[in-house]
Amino acid sequence: MNKKAVVLVSGGLDSTTVLAMAQAQGYSCYTISFDYGQRHRAELVAAESTAKALGVVEHKVVTLDLRSIGGSALTDDAIDVPEDDPGGIPVTYVPARNTVFLSIALGWAEVLGAEAIWIGVNAVDYSGYPDCRAEYIQAFQAMANLATKAGVEGRSLEIKTPLLHLSKANIIREGMALGVDYGLTVSCYQANSNGEACGLCDSCRLRKAGFDEAGVPDPTQYAAKPVA
Q1: Catalytic activity, per the record (predicted)?
Q2: Residue 193 pLDDT more than 90?
Q3: Would you say residue 17 lies in a domain?
Q4: Confidence of residue 127 (pLDDT cuts 50, 70, 90)
């Protein structure tokens, strides 16, 4: 019987690479995205496109309203997306986002009988987000196996984070080796409705630097000239 995995996909470079890696390891993949009121909604179109291109079993979009609590430049239009690096945890951090997303993915994984959840968190080029650290993932996995019927009955679930300690360049190299079409992905925090990137935000800078370091042509469509 094929092993099943739920894969969180945002339409971005990292999560698309994770999906390809899960498939390469023989998992039947069920992808999940979240329409949470984010500013960069072009990512939802990209998530569906990449899931379809990679041939997942099922792609699901769950609607949430994180704008109702705000607190992030991605969920509150009154907070500008920064175009420099102020240091510390940036305003693009969405409070409790990965905890909410992983909890819903956990529920679907239990329904499906999946043995793993794959997520593209990264502790190297991660913008300082606290819910992208190894300690956080370990704590969530422990909680997941305490909180579910499957866990109590001995069917433990693993949170897979293959990108955790990879640089952006190495993530791109891994994806290229697996045939990922990065032209389908959108990483920008403020991409326009056509999916064109600003070239200025933190996510754009990390993505562009990754392609440069990997020595791979950048397929990103920019609405304006990217940063040097």
Answers
A1: 7-carboxy-7-carbaguanine + NH4(+) + 2 ATP = 7-cyano-7-carbaguanine + 2 AMP + 2 diphosphate + 2 H(+)
A2: no
A3: yes
A4: low
Which residues define the annotated binding site?
A: 9-19, 188, 198, 201, 204
Residue 209 pLDDT more than 50?
A: yes
Q: What is the pLDDT of residues 144-178, one digit of tens each?
A: 999 999 999 999 999 999 999 999 999 999 999 99
Instruction: Indicate the burial class of 45 (C-beta count within 10 angstroms; 0-12, 13-18, 19 or more).
Output: middle
One-letter amino acid for residue 212 of the chain: D
DSSP letter (8 states) at residue 90:
-
Place of tokens 């999560």: 15
- Strand ranges (DSSP E) for the chain? 3-8, 27-35, 58-63, 116-118, 158-160
Determine, yes or no, domain membership for 224. no
> Residues 6 or more apart from 142 whose CB is under 8 A from it?
none
**1 pLDDT more than 60:** no
Residue 94 · residue 75 · CB < 8 Å:
yes
**Annotated binding site for ATP: which residue ranges?**
9-19
Structural domain containing residue 150:
3-214
Q: Is residue 227 part of a domain?
A: no
| C-alpha to C-alpha distance for 38 and 12, rounded to whole angstroms | 14
**Annotated binding-site members for Zn(2+):** 188, 198, 201, 204
Q: Count structural domains, the chain.
A: 1
